[in-house]
Design goal:
Arc Repressor Mutant, subunit A; 107 residues; globular; alpha+beta
């Protein structure tokens, strides 16, 4: 699975991600490039600038809550997706992943 797909799946869980987290969790050295690729694919992603204890600025990315975000149309909380009623390929596809990747998001 590509880094872009891993980052997309991470964002679909409702979590934000920073460059440090992307490096530690996914071995992704260039999170901003992966975010750009996702945006080019039409995914609406918000960036929030933060500052660490040493005053260094960094970005935290998360899916936009805008209504027209193609991945948000049917996005539901992961806790709901885990229920038996949502364990279908339709649920999985509406969350932007293939049926083969269903377990990765809890469907």
């Amino acid at each position: 699975m590509s880094q872009k797909d891993k980052i997309r799946k991470h964002l679909l869980t409702g979590q934000s991600i920073t460059a440090g987290e992307a490096l530690l969790v996914y071995g992704c050295f260039r999170l901003a490039a992966r975010i750009r690729e996702l945006r080019e694919d039409g995914v609406l992603i918000d960036a929030v600038m933060k500052r660490d204890a040493n005053g260094k600025h960094y970005a935290s990315y998360r899916l936009s809550s805008m209504q027209n975000n193609p991945l948000n149309e049917s996005l539901m909380p992961l806790s709901q997706c885990k229920t038996a009623a949502y364990r279908t390929c339709d649920c999985v596809r509406s969350n932007g992943v293939s049926c083969d990747d269903a377990e990765d998001i809890g469907c």
